[in-house]
């Protein structure tokens, strides 16, 4: 299948996806393109020195806030008040730490200079969000993502102290439930997210949820 190509003047994302879930390449990373992408269930995912690739998985991995799983061990962590959790207090530091943590893994990181800059601009526009987990006044872990109306799209997480990233996800789910968000998009399957209540839904159902959660397309 040929791959659809974006240019700087064309932000229309095609409806189809190939077997590998990548639907288009090219375009630019700016707030307008990113907002349009997330409104259509699309996100950028590519590695340094590669052309920008935009993805829409055929099956989406999500957490529904009402279905969050909190293990007995995590309940003890909450009860002992080991961590403090804040929201949107230090977005730039969270995305930086997510990037640095992944740079030293075998897989590497897709969070390059352009990604980091673009998502910081999204945050400045009120479209990005972050969860910070603190221990003894130092960052212990967290996550960042994109929020559109009643839809949350988690992008990456990290931890320096065991259970800090789980604390971030659970705290986000509890906030999402209290504020009537419909879902937390996790994009792809991981055992970590499965343990917290992640589940697959087909792409058409995911797009219907976005349409329900977004009152208007930006």
Query: What is the CATH fold-level name of the largest domain?
Result: Aminopeptidase
- Average pLDDT, all residues: 91
Q: In percent, how helical is the residue content?
A: 25-40%
> What is the tally of helical segments?
7
The main β sheet shows up as: 7 strands, mixed
E-strand count: 11
Distance between the termini: 29 Å
How many structural domains? 2
Query: Could you give the order of the helices and strands?
Result: EEHEEEHEHHEEEHEHEH
User: What structural category do the secondary elements indicate?
Assistant: alpha+beta
User: What percent strand?
Assistant: 25-35%
Q: Quickly give the CATH architecture of the largest domain.
A: 3-Layer(aba) Sandwich
Principal-axes geometry comes out as globular
Rg computed from alpha carbons, rounded to a whole number of angstroms: 17 Å
Strand order in space, largest sheet: 6-7-8-9-10-5-11
List segments where confidence is low: pLDDT < 50 over at least 5 consecutive residues. none
Highest-level CATH class of the largest domain:
Alpha Beta
Describe the protein's topology.
Layout: E1 4-6, E2 22-26, H1 31-39, E3 43-44, E4 53-55, E5 59-63, H2 72-80, E6 84-87, H3 91-103, H4 113-124, E7 128-135, E8 138-148, E9 151-159, H5 164-178, E10 183-187, H6 191-194, E11 199-202, H7 203-213
Helix pairs in contact: 3-4
């Amino acid at each position: 299948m040929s791959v659809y190509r974006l240019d700087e003047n064309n932000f229309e994302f095609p409806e189809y996806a190939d077997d590998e879930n990548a639907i288009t390449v090219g375009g630019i990373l700016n707030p307008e393109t990113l907002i349009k992408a997330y409104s259509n269930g699309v996100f950028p995912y590519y590695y340094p020195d590669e052309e920008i690739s935009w993805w829409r998985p055929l099956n989406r991995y999500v957490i529904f806030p009402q279905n969050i799983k909190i293990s007995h061990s995590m309940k003890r962590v909450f009860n002992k008040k080991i961590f403090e959790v804040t929201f949107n207090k230090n977005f730039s530091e969270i995305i930086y730490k997510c990037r640095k943590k992944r740079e030293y893994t075998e897989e590497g990181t897709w969070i390059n200079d352009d990604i980091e800059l673009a998502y910081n601009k999204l945050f400045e526009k009120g479209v990005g969000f972050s969860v910070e987990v603190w221990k003894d006044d130092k960052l212990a872990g967290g996550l960042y993502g994109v929020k559109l109306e009643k839809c949350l799209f988690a992008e990456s997480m990290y931890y320096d102290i065991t259970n800090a990233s789980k604390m971030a996800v659970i705290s986000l789910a509890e906030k999402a439930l209290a504020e009537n968000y419909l879902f937390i998009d996790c994009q792809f399957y991981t055992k970590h997210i499965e343990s917290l209540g992640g589940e697959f839904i087909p792409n058409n159902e995911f797009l219907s949820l976005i349409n329900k959660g977004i009152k208007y397309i930006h």
